[in-house]
Task: inverse folding
């Protein structure tokens, strides 16, 4: 699975969605894995494009039916990686990019130990907070939860996360170039 499966993780607001959206179109053989979540859609988010939005009951059914490669409760909601899509894409010879929280990545590694891990870091805690607020998609309570969780997520990622690459997302163009260089490897 080396260079076939890529797992990106970051504290919320570090910019991994922005980075992913910027470069993925340049790689026709790479598809983005759409996760299932119980989180409410943000303005502009479309079911089946950004996430598969599920009720708690629907999500728990997916867990029971063994439909997920991994799942985790993140910032108070369930998030998980549907199995069918990844298996289907690998059969078609595609490569797959995942966006997983740092704890979910550890469970993912149990199924696909050779996936390439990419940790995206914000330039500073202050900038992370600025970006979360600047995004304008979350309530103050949600922002506080995400900032509170960011520290332990990054501590965990650096000590136990097994990320092969770290990208500091200060300058977007440079960070995008680093991501491109990683995805170009086959
Ligand atoms: P994530 O997916 O990691 O939660 P987003 O991609 O939604 O983060 O980015 C959070 C906010 O930060 C967005 O408003 C985005 O436009 C902004 N952002 C992302 N990367 C940069 C960057 N390098 N410099 C400045 N702002 C950025
Ligand atoms: P957001 O709500 O900002 O879209 O995502 C919140 C967090 O959930 C991010 O850290 C993101 O990486 C994580 N996440 C998204 N999809 C999945 C998934 O399928 N599994 C796991 N474990 N985490 C996910």
Result:
């Amino acid at each position: 699975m080396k260079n076939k499966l890529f797992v990106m993780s970051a504290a919320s607001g570090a910019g991994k969605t922005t980075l992913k959206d910027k470069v993925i179109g340049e790689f026709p053989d790479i598809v983005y894995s759409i996760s299932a979540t119980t989180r409410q859609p943000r303005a502009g988010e479309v079911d089946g494009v950004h996430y598969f939005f599920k009720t708690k009951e629907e999500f728990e059914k997916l867990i029971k039916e063994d439909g997920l490669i991994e799942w985790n409760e993140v910032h108070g909601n369930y998030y998980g990686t549907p199995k069918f899509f990844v298996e289907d894409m690998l059969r078609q010879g595609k490569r797959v990019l995942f966006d997983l929280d740092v704890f979910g990545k550890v469970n993912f590694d149990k199924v696909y130990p050779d996936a390439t891990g990419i940790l995206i870091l914000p330039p500073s805690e202050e900038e992370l907070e600025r970006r979360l607020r600047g995004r304008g998609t979350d309530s103050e309570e949600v922002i506080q939860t995400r900032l509170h969780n960011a520290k332990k997520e990054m501590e965990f990622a650096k000590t136990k996360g097994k990320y092969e690459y770290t990208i500091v997302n200060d300058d977007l163009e440079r960070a995008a170039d680093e991501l491109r260089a990683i995805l170009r490897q086959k």
About this structure: The two ends are 10 Å apart (CA to CA). Residues 7 and 98 are 5 Å apart (CA to CA).
